[in-house]
Prior knowledge:
The chain is of the alpha+beta class and 722 residues long. The chain is 37% helix and 22% strand. It has 21 helices and 25 strands. A seven-stranded mixed β-sheet has the order 18-17-16-15-14-19-20, sandwiched between helices. A six-stranded mixed β-sheet has the order 5-4-3-2-1-8. Strands 11-10-9-13-12 form a five-stranded mixed β-sheet, with no helix packed on it. A hairpin with a 4-residue loop joins strand 3 (60-64) and strand 4. Helix 14 packs across helix 15, helix 16 crosses helix 18 (563-610) and helix 18 crosses helix 21. The longest helix is centred in the last third of the chain and has 48 residues, at 563-610. The chain is flat, with a radius of gyration of 42 Å. The termini are far apart.
Amino acid sequence: MDKRKLSKIPRETASDEMLKFAERATGTHIVTCTEIEKDLLMLMFYPVKGLKKGKRGARIRTFFSKTDYITQDLSVSKVKWLTAALDRMDCIGEFYEYHYDWDTEKRTYIPKMFFWTDGDLEREKNFFKEWAYENDELEWTAVNRFQEMIKQQRLDEKHAKQTNPIDKVMETVKEVPESFKKWTSEKAMSFSRYLVYSANSKKTAVVHCTHCKGTTIVDRTKIRLRNNEKGTCPLCGSQVTIKAKGRMPRICDERTVSFIEPREDGFLWRYFRIRRWIGDKGTDVQDHLYEIVRTFYKFAPDGTPCTNSYEWREYKQSGHIRWCPNEGFINYMDCILYPDNLPEAWKKTPMKYSALEILSKNKPTTQIYYPKAVQKYKDFPQLEWFIKMGLYNLALYLINDVYGHAFVNRDFHRTRGIYQKGKTIFEILGLTKENTRILQKLDGDIDELRLLQEAQDSGYNLKADELERFYKIFGCNTTLIRKENRKASIHKICRYIEREGTEYRVGGQGNCWQYSYMRHKERPDVREERIQNCAKDWLDYLNWCKELKYDLNNMFFYFPKNFKKVHDRTAAEYQALQDKKAAEKKRREEERIKREAEVMKKLLEEMLKENAGIDNAFLIKGKGLILRVPKDAQEIRKEGAALHHCVGTYVDRVAKGQTHIFFVRRVEEPDTPYFTMEYNKGRVIQCRGSHNCGMPASVKAFVAAFEKLMKEREEKMERKCG
């Protein structure tokens, strides 16, 4: 519509009849309807309150064509246009007053907008008849329906400015190859394989593999079947997690996988979510693969990545699921990278030598923060060394290090880790060539690196099998790795824990395991949990033995037989010792309080006797102490600076009479700050010395005497006033 042409249409005014009618009208507006030309209608809204006051002007007028509408605000002299629908305008209010009868359960709509004549109503109905339905009961329903349609068209046009360029880009994206779909099921989800067993007898069991779908009977004396332990399928030979049929819930295992699609100016990083649903009997296995995020990569001349990312979700609460600008609603960064088309897919980019495809092939089920690797590789090109040397766990740690904790400059921090500024791999790792080979052999992670660094600095030569066993049992225990902190060799300690922990108790598994066993993170073998729990309890046991004064040089105490029983018995002895110490501490504390109370009572009696007959509590003295009143605010600030407490911040409150500050000084040093006292509402709030220290007995008695004398003085004043 031509707004300039519409604004020149003369503004109509209310007639005398409308003014008279408004005096007895109950609604909010009177509406007139005028057909300006073919397919162009004008509605004028006259407020009833204004008409009652003799004001003839309309509040707004709305122009309708068959494809659009617009409203002119007539309350101002200048031309002002409003684009909102009529039912959204505060200036005219609601069209109907709604009532609900609870007795008859009927709804009633009382009109608040009235058409001036039947002709006005007829013109309105004829214009909006194509948007009216036969069952419409209200006059304004067709108008509202038309405006809703126009609003949706406007919104679609607005959205199209953003979605059309996105759709144009998405048309260039190719279909993922079948090899990728097969890889997601065979490799990325290879951890999600279960061997479900049910006992036939004491010696045989029926097993079903969720991977090969095979079922057979096995000899339980030859194959270990324990719920949640790791094992091997006797049919296909794949690594599986063993599950008891009666204890197996419906499982949903989930991973995020990604695919690199080559492009002329960079590459497209595509992220997919794969979910594997396994029924409670293990026979029904379903995989669902769907795409969630697409990130387009381009690179500046200096290698800096520039990205445009989109996610598959609802667009602006419109109900339409489509590709939208990535606003971080979907968690996708930790993913598994498809390696079979690399490095060819990004050979024209700075990532061609990053060797990330080697890392992915060797960590096929581990979700890694691969998008971070793009920037990490630019900032730290030595990442390629770690991957090509087979240090995959360290490379994973470097990439997943979101907060930058991986690089620790050991020249300034006494924390072991990776030295970023090293020129060689040995300087970066802080290891000798021999220890670097050990780390390579084990594909050690950051904790194993720290153990090697600790052992190397303490002069202890760790072997690869020793380090592997120690780390699996004790984790990154850099204290125990030192020879001076052990009474036996690492081999003997590990052998002892493995023997005692075979049937050790398992800790709580958490509620999530019974519903989604490995949805986000693979749970370790339950046998490892038993041994690790035994190791933790053994270390606690050693600390208890030290407290109980047991001779840990005696292997009878260091490696007790039947450790579980000894641990529980020693725990009871240790707790009894702690209870005894706590009781002794409580007794000593009670005696100390009793002695202080006696001293305080004696000091208070002496001080009150010395100050007997003194009405002015400000003149109190005793035990070499006197009370002083601050001269001014500056003296209060100096007091706080001298005693290193916050009384200087109380100046404003003192000036307003909200509290009172007094100085407690020694008689021989009346000008030297000693203690500062705050008095308010008939009691001493606090009395603090240097650095907020507590009061000695003499000061406590002095403060108590002051408080008592002040109370007596206030009672005398009240009696006089009374």
